[in-house]
Amino acid sequence: QSSLKVSKQFMLSVLALVGEDVTLPASLSPAINAQGFEVRWFQDDFDSPVLLYHNLQIRPEHQIQSYKGRTALFLEELVSGNVSLRLQDVRASDRGLYRCFVDSGQWNEEVHITLKVEGHFELPFFVFHSLPSLCNVMPQRPGETVQP
Prior knowledge:
By secondary structure, this protein is an all-beta fold. The chain has one helix and eleven strands; from the N terminus they run E-H-E-E-E-E-E-E-E-E-E-E.
């Protein structure tokens, strides 16, 4: 039986800056071929994956919309047990706990990695402009009207 481990000295959290690409590292130990396995990266909902690799291919039809076009596995490295997730164009909303679930059909393993995101976050803001006065108040004599 194989087990899933977080590579790079058991690093359990990864830091990324908004807008950059990041790898959430995970690999099988011992290093065995994972091409025929199911690899599922998800956050809160197992059935709504960030990325799903199943039947020898990535299945974007099952993926959360906000991650479409931004995630990948290192497909050529699955043969050596690398099931790391590549996440492109990191957003503030990407931060949180990620789970990598690998199922061989005979056994399954899960590992957790926290993604911390730093940088410029998009926050709503208001801009106040100084507008010119619509009318000028002018001194007036009794009985006189002021026009703008």
